[in-house]
Amino acid sequence: MLDMKQWYQSKTVWGALIAMAAPLLRHAGVEMGLAEQANLADALASFAGAFGGVLAIYGRVMARGPIDLGGGRN
């Protein structure tokens, strides 16, 4: 488990969020089985990872200068 990723790229996190939301959705009249929940978690994790990549590229293109990491090197 040495591979690091952002929280929003985790299928486990999305699965937990969907599992918590499923009872609320059921009250609203939306039924989701375990297979649908798993598929939705996979899709959301993939989308979030892609969105993060797009956001990183956009941020670099729009940046006005380098990032100061506080190392005192110029």
TrEMBL record:
Protein name: Holin
Annotated transmembrane regions: 44-63
Record keywords, A-Z: Membrane, Transmembrane, Transmembrane helix
